[in-house]
Specification:
443 residues, alpha/beta, eight-stranded parallel beta sheet, three-stranded antiparallel beta sheet, 19 helices, 12% strand, globular, disordered C terminus
Length: 443
């Protein structure tokens, strides 16, 4: 019997080009740990900014738990299935996407590269991956939308301002600039206990870096007798230089720090919003709304009761609570709720996953447990630090290519068939101490 090889596709062609060129990828490797190490090396003269991106809350135990959780779940591949032709496209909240991968909302990207979020936006558009822009970005949502282009897919992550008029202004700007869904982060009403930052009093936002959404907001700026402006903060960020200028009476620097303090009083006021207050956003946002930071089954079920369109199961990459449950374990618990399963199947609730994604295998595990899509964050920052837009493009391309290959090797031809296949595709194993313990086995 004669068979035909599969036609070329975007993802495998990218990998083939590496071999045919003989030059290797832009980042010099596709090993995520090596990429992280290289990013640290590139930023050795700006190590404080690098550690601000890397470090998590307290002892970083939650961040560690996120990766250990992935290690506990093992894939059980199935053989001799016809998976020659594979498809990683899917549809999330009515939006057709090239893969189940989203660029997660990471703030202050200008700390690691001069182009900041603009490079990431261009990379996401070039690869065809949706981007979720952080409220604490170092570029205005308008400038990022322009960089992302008319065909880019983008959502906006919302840190809820204290004042209703400012909140409404931000929502209006996001909608007018093509952000089609709103992601409300609910786990960061106050910033977590971040030992590294506390040790040296490191606060980019307090020194005007990462507050650019406020500086570009006409309602907020009018309050201070100013017009909206679209800033591009200096790279590299130098907190001591800024403080020195302010102490010497530099008017521009003092104004910048004052406005930063006022914007932080809006978005980091310490007010803990409640479920009932979500109605305000529902009444004033025309489009899907997701809650990012859900970890408990009861909260996932409450989101259904509130008519929320989706949740992002996330512990903020371990940056908020030290000693918290791993995000993958939270997803596992949530996806054992029949109420959640029924809501997902009926289309009432979309479930995304965040915190710890590094490889194609990680994505398959998260999807098998029940997610419909995943967010990738820290690796994006590593690629950005090393090679700007090209570095981010590589991170996205290699992750999707890895997913495409590994999905086939597991015996699946369509990414949509992975969601909810935990009992068929995964086994939970503890290789910790002594003999192997199978918590769950497949026959």
């Amino acid at each position: 019997m004669t068979t035909q090889p599969p036609p070329p596709n975007k993802w495998i062609s990218w990998l083939s080009e590496i071999y045919s060129s003989g030059k290797g990828p832009v980042l010099g490797t596709v090993d995520v740990q090596e990429i992280e190490d290289k990013a640290r090396e590139v930023m050795q003269d700006n190590s404080t900014a690098y550690l601000y991106t890397l470090k998590s809350a307290g002892t970083c135990s939650t961040d560690d738990a996120n990766r250990k959780a992935f290690d506990r779940w093992k894939l059980v591949p199935r053989m001799l299935n016809n998976v020659t032709l594979r498809n990683v496209e899917t549809t999330i909240l009515g939006m057709k996407v090239s893969s189940p991968i989203f660029v997660g909302p990471v703030g202050k990207q200008g700390l690691v590269h001069a182009d900041g979020e603009l490079a990431t936006a261009r990379a996401a558009a070039a690869v065809g991956v949706p981007m979720i822009l952080s409220s604490s970005s170092s570029r205005s949502l308008e400038d990022v939308a322009e960089a992302n282009g008319p065909n880019g897919q983008r959502w906006y992550q919302f840190y809820w301002p204290r004042s209703s008029d400012v909140a409404l202004s931000v929502l209006k700007r996001a909608k007018e600039n093509g952000y089609t869904a709103l992601v409300i982060t609910v786990d960061t009403m106050i910033v977590g206990w971040r030992s590294h930052d506390h040790r040296i009093g490191y606060s980019p936002a307090g020194h005007g870096f990462g507050v650019q959404q406020g500086m570009a907001d006409p309602v907020f700026m009018k309050r201070h007798g100013l017009v909206a402006r679209h800033e591009r903060p200096k790279f590299p960020f130098d907190q001591e230089e800024i403080r020195k200028k302010a102490a010497e009476g530099d008017k521009e620097t003092k104004q910048s720090m004052f406005l930063a303090s006022q914007w932080l009083a809006e978005t980091g006021s310490g007010i803990f919003r409640t479920w009932d207050e979500l109605q305000f956003v529902k009444d004033n946002w025309d489009g899907p709304i997701l809650l990012k930071g859900i970890q408990a089954v009861n909260d996932a079920e409450k989101a259904i009761d509130m008519g929320i369109d989706g949740i992002v199961v996330s512990n903020h990459g371990g940056r908020q609570i030290d000693g918290a449950i791993a995000s993958l374990d939270a997803l596992d618990m949530i996806m054992r709720s029949q109420k959640v399963i029924d809501a997902q199947k009926s289309g009432k609730l979309t479930i995304l996953f965040d915190s710890g994604i590094r490889t194609g295998s990680d994505i398959i595990k998260a999807l098998a447990i029940g997610a419909q899509g995943v967010l990738i964050a820290r690796p994006i920052m590593y690629g950005l630090a090393i090679a700007g837009q090209a570095g981010v493009e590589q991170i996205l391309m290699q992750t999707i290519c890895d997913l495409h290959i590994t999905m086939g090797l597991c015996g699946f031809s369509n990414v949509n068939d992975l969601t909810g296949k935990r009992d068929e595709l995964l086994v939970k194993v503890d290789y910790g101490v002594g003999a192997r313990t199978l918590v769950k086995s497949l026959m």
